[in-house]
Amino acid sequence: MRIVRWLFILACLFLVPVQLQAGLILSNESPRWGERVHAKATLDFPGDSLHPGDRVYLELNYRPQGTYCFKFYDMSWDGEKFTADVVIPSGCEEVVLYVRTPEKQLKGYTRIYPLDEDGNPPPGSVILSSNSDTGDEWLETVAREFEKYPDIWWAYWEVWRRRIYERHDLEVDELLSRLEYLEKQEKTAELLRTLAMGYWYAAEFETAYARLEELCRKFPGSPYALHAINDATAQVSQNNLTDMRASLNNLTVDTISRAPDNPALRFNYSAGGWLILPGYSIATMKKICDPWIEEEPDNPGPHYYLADCFANTGRFQEAESELNRAVTLAFKPRPWDLFSRLARGSCFRLRSEVRAKQGRLVEALADIELAREHSSMSIAGDLEKEASLWMKLGCPDKAVETSLAAYRLGSEDAEILLKGFHEIRTKKTEGFEEWLAAELGDKSEAAAEDQGLELSPEFEGTTMQGEKIDSKLLKDDLVILNFWYTACSPCIGEIPELNRLVEQYKSDKIRFLAFTSDDKEQIPGFLAKHPFKYEIIPGAWAVEKAFGVSSHPTHVVIQSGRILWEASGARAGNTERLEGTIRRFLDGNLK
Question: How many CA atoms lie within 13 A of 352 on its CB side?
């Protein structure tokens, strides 16, 4: 029996080798829980590099029973390599290691599957480590693991995800049958998260939300509650469930308020959005942020969230005090992560709002310009705010110029601002469309430069049908670009509207091109469930990089080599504003 057991373990470990990042060397590629591993990072990474004088960190990202946690370790230069000793956390099935600096995450990663204290793969580890592309072999591996460990509820969610997004072979009837079996088991937090996710996948949205509410009501302090809220946020966006958004926001605030010490708050990048929702009391936010500040005194995040809560309750001096601390900390070196990327711009942006509400318009204007300089994630919104400040300061020409720039970047409110400015200046409401068309209409090279229209990067690619795309041959066309990927919920959610635009407006002079970083092999299975009528160009990492895409979906409209309009991220009304740009082109206003 012992020989059979070890043969099974070896076979499981052989299914997928350890995925090693070129440039990162580990002293032990199959460590046990609690063991120390010595990691070395060389200077040469594929497409990246380090220098001996750099400040370098090693991120240890680990998954205990379907949840996510991470730790950072400082790496030191030993004369040849950067090194760090890390301890493998107990209870985890998977560890992913990233090398970061204060400015970036280096390309690639190292993935390992630790063993338990006895040297065996922990329950569910085989499912994570095995290759789902091996057809029936993988399904047999999954079945054996569930037979051996029938109550690893988190693993069901992982299997469903792979079968939907990687294998494209999970039928709704099969999923519902499994959910019926799971409903008969004792409802733990882990199981309720899996049930909710299963019903989302089965498009049983009301039942999914009911399981989510049950989870948050019974187990608000469980990491599974916040992970389930994260799942729900993605599904509501992907499926355009607008009626659920307000209810989900309220449930999020209530869940976090009932358990402000939930450990998943610090390990979930969605927490940044959760903690700035309206509805938190100052007392709750202090319960969240005070221990956080004590444990991570150099982290600007908790100061920012406190400031936002103070601002929402009209306590502007306290808000500004916290923001001043956050701004200072945002410039101190720390491991690059999503908040680091946004922190400086977010802090300046909120401080601008706080100062504007106190009537300090010049200081507010300076801050909003600093926000735009330090963060590319909300340029259109920053331009909206800047335009309003310019108008209040008595500079209408600057206000109109800034509003037009925001409009071209997909601003939600720029058209409203422009209507207001037009009415103020002309003392009438008529003629706005003609005025706006005139402001946008002259696209000569000189006018384009005067209006600040950015040159589009040149790009090439090959569509799924094998057609070569070259931007140099599209100079006379209106070219509409969409940057997306198959696992992006907001991208999937807007596809039906984008298909409508293609059906209504596609012509010899209008091209709709969709660039994805996904490989060509991933696309057909996705399209079978989500038909997308743009011309799809897979493997488009280089084009994404050329356009500086930082969030998905991103839309860009190009004519005569200039960017006329763009919108980044999942924002309401993007497709409507995109359609407006197309209509102006057809009306002759962009020719």
Answer: 25
CA distance 566 to 564: 7
Residue 355 or 18, more confident: 355
Separation of alpha carbons 458 and 515, rounded Å: 14
Which fold does the domain 2-136 belong to in CATH? Immunoglobulin-like (2.60.40)
Angle, CA 421 vertex, CA 418 and CA 425 arms, to 5°: 140
C-alpha–C-alpha distance, residues 225 and 295, integer Å: 23
Give 570 or 193, the one with higher predicted confidence. 193
Residues 6+ apart with CB under 8 A from 456: 471, 556, 558, 561, 562, 563
C-alpha 509: how far from chain center: 33
User: What is the DSSP-derived secondary structure letter of residue 265?
Assistant: G
Nearest to 297 by CA among 329, 275, 321: 329
pLDDT tens figures, 536-568 = 999 988 898 888 887 789 999 998 888 888 887
Nearest of 337, 388, 376, 379 to residue 72 by alpha carbon? 337
Specify the pLDDT at position 448. 45
At which residue do the structure tokens 């350890």 appear? 18
> Torsions phi, psi of 511, nearest 5?
-115, 135
Give the integer Cα–Cα distance in Å for 231 and 366.
38
**Tens of pLDDT, residues 239-276:** 878 889 999 999 999 999 999 999 999 887 778 889 99
Give the rounded distance of the alpha carbon of 483 from its chain centre: 13
Phi, psi angles (nearest 5°) of residue 153: -60, -35
Tokens of 315: 């306590």
Q: Which amino acid is at 405?
A: A
Using 50, 70 and 90 to split pLDDT, how confident is the model at 164?
confident
Spell out the alpha helix ranges (H) of 296-443.
301-312, 316-330, 338-357, 361-374, 379-392, 396-408, 414-426, 432-441
Under 8 Å between Cβ of 471 and 459: yes
- Hey, what CATH class is 460-586 in? alpha beta
The structure tokens listed for 326 are: 């956050």
Tens digit of pLDDT for each residue in 455-505?
A: 889 999 999 999 999 998 888 789 999 999 988 878 888 999 999 999 999
CATH topology of domain 276-375: 1.25.40
Cα separations (Å) of 218 from 118, 190, 195?
A: 34, 12, 15
pLDDT digits (tens, 9 = 90+) for 206-240: 999 999 999 999 999 999 999 999 999 988 887 87
Three-state DSSP at 134 gives coil
Whether 174 and 184 have beta carbons less than 8 Å apart is answered as no
On whether the CB atoms of residues 192 and 214 are closer than 8 A, the answer is yes
Residue 371 backbone zone (phi > 0: left; psi -120 to 50: alpha; other: beta): alpha
User: Which residues are CB-neighbours of 123 under 8 A, at least 6 positions away?
Assistant: 93, 145, 148, 149, 152, 155
CA distance readout (Å), 435 to 123, 429, 449, 455: 66, 11, 20, 25
Question: DSSP alpha helices (H): ranges in 375-431?
Answer: 379-392, 396-408, 414-426
Phi-psi region of 336 (alpha: psi -120 to 50; beta: other; left: phi over 0): beta
Q: How far, in Å, are 25, 41, 177, 416 from residue 20 at the CA level? A: 8, 12, 38, 52
